[in-house]
């Protein structure tokens, strides 16, 4: 999803872009991305396959959650155990949720026990834009960046104060409201937002499930975010970023009359200082902490209460040194993870990872080069990762790329310490990925094709019988035994014709467990998206088609999930300069489909909203 404008990058990024020696083509308003190289670059100079979802695209889509938005992007599949109030698994190029890194303004989020981000608690209302980088980036971001990196950028105030707000109502008695204010004055920038969504929901399970209860499983989601910064001198900026998301959701646990529910809270705070130390040296220091807290209430007794809280505290110092048209990057990082639980006693309630990394990005004529190397040391030992990339412009519009990179995923706390399941001797998963791509971007047309082959060793599986001695492991355990291959071809195209824009993407992939020869659970071999949008005369309207081939709900490939196709419609109308109305209709055909066996997915769902300040 390319747009022909500069997206608003993070605070230090805008400063870096202004101070660094320009390396972009002399073409109007290219999109600038940050995540692919941890430094600003034109999207068409990112060697890694990268997309940017702009603020305008997010607003126009009318998406109700970040999961709805991600599900429409190429190379991404979703699995969910119920409706919008339940957490989701995001597969990136066939890689599992815990094999991808999720960042919010450069701050890593996710649970140390599961290794995955709690997507349902991330507030869409605070998001300015999103960047998705496909392929291994462990040499830049460390552990878990096997399938790729998804970075969310929150809003940053700029110019005169602006107010945006919306309120809406939809199917299942869904009510939602949000508001945000942003602006800047005399070096001070601010952006503050808050939102709330509540829904009666529907039964999360189907009658075939052993947990089935025909009652409705609703949810209550709240969020708030703030981003404040102050530029006290030219090239010298300090700031803070805060985000809070909470979700109380009901789920099924048989015919119990007790209000069975889970409560999740995601909190993140960061302080940073970005300083132009020399004309060619930009320093960025950041201290951040994220908390991912989760509780479940399965009965009225104390035994029915479970709590798992994880905290990550990180320190980083990034230095971007411009050498002519090249950029040398030097990085020091330290991350401390802590886990608290009432369910079991941890043998090691915290772990610290120390990291050092370096990268080099260069351009020579029509050729692009990058190289990166990183060393991470923690309780699982030291891991070295690296990457090399090359790109070549056949013309200003046509570019080829090739890259190779290594990656790893650190064992989670559950895989190391959970009683009867984990083992402290478990090793990190390792990945080796090679890919080639061809990209064309000219005026109102874009085309891309990328082939990748990512081989994983020491894949962690739940194996039975367990090789460890002891009756506590009779139900299986986490164990490094399998090899996997994530290989595939991704095609994408878009074309603008006057007020109309047509886009399509298709993924052919083979996410396979090479040890068993079986297809990895809940991942299809083919999936894709089609979309047509109209923007003119005050109207924005569109149709989306989501397609997926069959999948299996289990590693043994016994429980088949049929393929499906969904059609979604949306339309918005600008009533006057400030006010607009939006209507979105998901799953127009009222189709029943499966993302996880015996779990319900939304049937036809309509949502309408009145918005102020959206353009």
UniProtKB/TrEMBL annotation:
Keyword Glycoprotein: no
Gene Ontology cellular-component annotations: cell outer membrane
Pfam families, sorted: Plug, TonB_dep_Rec_b-barrel
Keyword Transmembrane: yes
InterPro entries with a match to the protein in the record: Beta-barrel_TonB, Beta-barrel_TonB_sf, Plug_dom, Plug_dom_sf, TonB-dep_rcpt-like
Any one GO BP annotation for this protein: monoatomic ion transport
PROSITE patterns: TONB_DEPENDENT_REC_3 (PS52016)
Compartments in which it is found: Cell outer membrane
Region span, Disordered: 198-218
Highest taxon of the lineage: Bacteria
Domain TonB-dependent receptor plug: 47-149
Annotated TonB-dependent receptor-like beta-barrel domain residues: 186-588
Family affiliation: Belongs to the TonB-dependent receptor family.
Protein name, per record: TonB-dependent receptor
Originating species: Duganella fentianensis
Upper lineage: Bacteria, Pseudomonadati, Pseudomonadota, Betaproteobacteria, Burkholderiales
